[in-house]
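JOB MANIFEST
job_type = single_chain_structure
chain_count = 1
residues = 378
[input]
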Amino acid sequence: MDVYKELGIEPIINAAGTLTHLGGSLILPEVMEAMVAASRMFVDMEELHRAAGKHIAELIGVEGAHVCSGGAAGITLMAAACMTGTGSARIRRLPDTSVLRRKFVVQQAHRNPFDQALRLAGGEFVEISASTNELEQALAGDDVAAVYYTFAWFCVRPALPLAQVAQMAHRRGVPVIVDAAAEVPPVENLWRFVKEGADLVTFSGGKAMRGPQSSGLILGKAALIEACRLNDNPNMGVGRPMKAGKEEIAGLVRAVELYMARDHAADSLAWDRRVARVIEIVSEVNHVRAWRQLPYGIGQQIPHAALTWDEQALGATCQDLQQQLKDGRPRIAVQLVTPSSYDFAGFESSQIRVHPHTLREGEEVVVAERIRDILAPQ
């Protein structure tokens, strides 16, 4: 059954990466089997949340874990947990934070569109530069709920390191929460940020781990993990609308098991082969520069092919290429990075990125040949 064809929608070859607007990743067959099995029976959801969290925490080697409906939901729940703790009256009050600690100290380098999820819980940001003096002053406020920290490829501006921030915050009794939604691989990042001092950290379940798209993972201190759980569905908190069903929970448990046991070196070799093939093919066009690139930072360490060219000589911009790929047959999505779309990150020029990990074997050739044919002068 072609469900997309029945709806009149044509699927896309995804060379843009595990982006939410393209459906994240392709769920592993073993994960889907776990989801189907979970769908056939009823279960007490609170018992399931506790059991799944305990199992995942043991697998990864952290105090606690909670399955949520995605990385953004994880941000909301982490913020809520820091403002309410486990108190039921405070949990029911959100997003009214008028009598709660509601300020979240954040370095300017870590502000990005995804942090709206924190404000959804009623939190407010206090921005500082990458300055220990400013951090110390901000932590002195009596209404500070936590420090908010982001790891992402677009956080390219200077920032104080997590371990230093956590040490300073903990001296004041202030927790540190981390958005690391796409920061695997490497797999070690699942426990790295907690070891560096994060009290809570959230990851997406529907990206590199290839779990359900509507799933996420919060890891960290047991007491705050419990506060996350109490703020989440099926309880009456801000997380009630952010439901991770029994199928998503079972699927993410299986995805974590598989990801921890995966041959990550073999994955890297396969990705590099695809990237090399793309570069080889598109480099046939004069005026095109193509190179292997890794995302900035310490996470999402998956190589991709980056492309730029002399737009005047070839008569096409990066935006033109992206649109022609999408409008063609088969439809192809690539990542477009422009200064306007990532103005918060300070990018100064545009480029096209071709990501290998969301491509099926052989699709890298289809993508590269289409790019070559569009850019090659007629």
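[summary]
Residues 264-282 form the longest helix (19 residues).
Residues 42-261 form a domain with the Aspartate Aminotransferase; domain 2 fold (CATH 3.40.640.10).
exit_status = 0
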